[in-house]
Amino acid sequence: MKLHFKASLLLVTFLVSGCTNTPEYHLNDGILISNATIISASEDENIRSFEGHILIEADSIVYSGKELPKIKGSYKTINATGKFVIPGLIDSHVHVGHTITLKDEHYETRPELVKSYNEQLPKSYLYFGFTSLIDLDLNENTRNRFQKAAIKPDLYSTSRGVRYFDGYGPGLFPEHLRLKYFPRWIYDQSQLTSIPKDTDLSEHTIPAVVEQTIKDNAIGLKTYYEKGFGGVFDWPVPSDSLLVNLVNEAHQNNLPVVLHATSSDAYKKGLQANVDIFGHGLWHWEGSKLNPNPPDEIKSIYEEIRAKEKYVQSSMRVILGEYDTYTWSLINHPDIKHVLQNDFIKWLKSEEGRWSQEELIALYNSVIKDSTQSKEKYLKTFNERVIRTTKLAYDNGVRLILGSDSPAQEGIGNVPGLNGFLEIEALSEAGVDNKTIFLASTIRNARAFNLQHSLGSIKNGKRANMLILNQNPLLDVKAYNTIATVIVSGISYNREQLSATYNSQ
Ligand SMILES: [Zn+2]
Question: Which of 152, 397, 418, 440 could form a disulfide with 122 if both were Cys (CB 3.0 to 4.6 A apart)?
């Protein structure tokens, strides 16, 4: 009945105001954002900036334009004079089930820390403006837990990643845990003798894993080509035909494929198999680990990526964040109190809480045999590689998209929410211009995952996910840390409400 009433009201309004062509909007508990500078890009990446107004009803944008339309019904007004409204940011590489500095045993011994971390996690992403997340290896329990939160970003996923039997992922765990932790995997015929006899192999064919992925409402498929991070580990990798067949099957089912790739040979395999998105920057190549300069070959890889219109997730923070775990200096970041609760910060400051730093130092000591140079020098060279390859990709027209891989590691380097902002800062410091960063975090990221119909710009009919900023992000990326209001799914929050300090005030 109510729907009918509303529809006819709108019709009457159309008839009355038909000659002026500006319909009257009848809102029910809506939002008017008035007098804003609206910045949004079209699908062909034209960025438009204009003074105007936005109307939101339920979880959708119903109007955005220069004229203030006639509005009736119930709504609240947010006066955005002097402020900038942009689409909510998208981080297309997260892992909401991974808990920084907490491992399996802590789920038994420190359950209060797990609770504290998980309670704050969705709000931390929103605190830094990430209203949509794409989890690239999500299980059902984590999804259910996340969806129960009252305040949260939109969560999309590629479901469980499709692993390679005994390859990267499973290969990090003892044999009895591998198949339990990584149930979705494929194999080559040559591996048959190593696979446990009681395995139902019909669940591990390419059509079977793609079907499992679709059943989980995935928006894409994630798979891996990783030999061991430039020689630190030694894992088997899928054969060319296995990778090609997997990508073909995913494409036949309209799933874009994200390939975990960090080396030049993995990038080449990805191009050959026609994957759509490279899930990391390119950091590993043959030759001295103390040379930060990417070889010529990498420039030609980027040229091919541009020609084939593939996407690359920068994920600079994977490496830069590892350095932060090594030094632990991120604990002093002024914004950390907003994204982690106080008890969790105390844990990070305790000796026990710094176990991951010790383990990382031990790992470097065991893999870097060179005693003539400091470990620091190796780490800094890797940071430099990340910066130089990102710049090279950008200079060669590669379509970068924002994926922070939060958290990529067990240390302190990838704190949810904050890490996405640090990724934006890192892109800027590497030389990526502000317009590209804006596109990479909004419409381009949506397009890479076929989400452009509902996300990525301020347009009628799209989801009402947006940010009100005090400063202009096209002038300085620091503006992404001047959020006044976050609107997600049509509900507005003052930024303070999303801070970990809010409840303790
Ligand atoms: Zn990842």
Answer: 152
